[in-house]
Amino acid sequence: MSTQTQFDAMPALQGGIATLRSRHLDAIQQAQAQFSIDGLKLHILLSAQSAAPLGISVAQQRRQMPSGSAAVLQAHFDALAENGLLRLADGLYYLTEHGSAALAQGFGVVHQSLAGYTPIPALDRLLALAQRLVEAALAAPAPAAKPDLLASRRTDPGA
What we know:
By secondary structure, the chain is mainly alpha-helical. Helix content is 70%, strand content 5%. A hairpin with a 2-residue loop joins strand 1 and strand 2 (92-95). Helix 3 (58-64) packs across helix 4. The two termini are 26 Å apart.
C-alpha cells in the first residue's frame, strides 16, 4: 500500500475507530480507574507484559520515549509498583499477577464490546497472511535480536 493510499484510507479508518471507541470507551475507562491506570501507565504495563518473563527499566522506556521526562516516567513506575501492578527487583520492574489481571480485564472489556461485530470474510485471509509474515520474520537469520517480534508473539492471544 502506498503512502498516498494510506492517507486516502484515513477518513474511513477514523470513522470506524470512532464508532468502536464509542462502544467500549466507558467500560475501558472504568477498568482503568479500578486499577489506577492512565495512558502512560498502560503503556508501561503493556511493555512489562511484552518483556515477561524479563523485567523492564525506566532507562529502557526512555529509549522508546526520548522526549519524555525521566522523573515523570519514574513516578509512573513507582505508582504502578505501589499499586501492586509491577514489582521492583534488582533495578528492574516485573509485571505482577495483579498487573496481569488488570491487563486481562481491560482486554476482556474490549473483546466483549467487539463480540457483536461479525468480521469480514477477507479478514481470515489477512490474518493468515500476517501469521505467515510473523513466522517468516521470526525464522529469519538476521538480525539476531528481534525483541519486538518476540514480545508480540508472546502476547498474541491467537497464538
